[in-house]
Amino acid sequence: MSSGTTTITCPVCEQTLSLDETPRRSLNCESGHRFDAAKQGYFNFLTGKGTNFLEDTSAMVQARDAFQSKGHYEPLVLALSKLINDHHEASTLDVLDAGAGTGYYLEKILEHSPAPSHDALALDISRYAMRKAAKVPATLAVVWDVWRKLPTADQSRDVVLNCFAPHNPAEFRRVLRPNGLCLVVTGEPDHLNEVIEPLGMLSVAEGKQAALAEKFGAEGLRHVESQKLSYQMDLQSEDLFNLAFMGPAGHHLSPETLEQQALALGPQQVTASFGVHAFVPQA
């Protein structure tokens, strides 16, 4: 397992990076650019001016990890794994997770894959999320802005995973192999509708499927399938807090106020509703 280094490219000069384990774990290219791993195992490619986007904070990542570890989104993992396993039959599975967060979906997909060899690259702007993703087996976790050119070679990935994250279809198309698969997960308009208003969360816009198909089609990715996955979750007050705080609203919600609101709501049955959209490269 090469942990993403067979086809990872330098963000400065775009040459191939090689992994050196001594004297300190680092990624190096022939032009002399070097990136040392943080003590938590991830790499940071956002040098210089970095990015204008807000990274998820340590508290937000902790909330997401706590919520996901309870298995509330397990049906989504199973749906993604089935789509990948039905599409991909090779002995190796090379995955790019663009906007990987904690690496939860990536780790579960690798666990469910029958391929004997895996090679994954997890990208996210949050250092705190990449600390978690760096623990996923066979995965290289890199702090990077997925709006930019992705640090992996042309046609180097069997699967691009894009769950609740910014879309960069031109780059997804570039890095996918001709028989590759791009899976995009979005929230449906009824996602979490029971608690969005009382917890101050952000609602989901209508018409995402049509907009996605048009946007991705313009960049050479053909829409082949969309599935709506909807089910009920039984959530306690702690789950409600984590659910609200782990998402984009966590950047402006007061943890103290949110905790009081979640306690006041008490146990709730909440709708999980996802759109799972599959794209393949156009010939």
UniProtKB/TrEMBL annotation:
What InterPro entries does the entry give?
Methyltransf_25, RlmA_N, rRNA_m1G-MeTrfase_A_prd, SAM-dependent_MTases_sf
Pfam (any one): Methyltransf_25
| Keyword Transferase assigned | yes
Transmembrane stretches, start-end: none
- Gene3D superfamilies found in the cross-reference section: Vaccinia Virus protein VP39 (3.40.50.150)
MF (Gene Ontology): methyltransferase activity
Which residues belong to any copy of the Methyltransferase domain?
A: 95-180
* EC number in record: 2.1.1.51
GO biological process annotations for this chain's record? methylation
Q: Which UniProt key words apply to this protein?
A: Methyltransferase, Transferase
Please report the stretch or stretches of sequence annotated as the 23S rRNA (guanine(745)-N(1))-methyltransferase N-terminal domain: 9-46
Q: What is this protein called?
A: rRNA (Guanine-N(1)-)-methyltransferase
Question: Which organism does this record belong to?
Answer: Glutamicibacter arilaitensis (strain DSM 16368 / CIP 108037 / IAM 15318 / JCM 13566 / NCIMB 14258 / Re117)
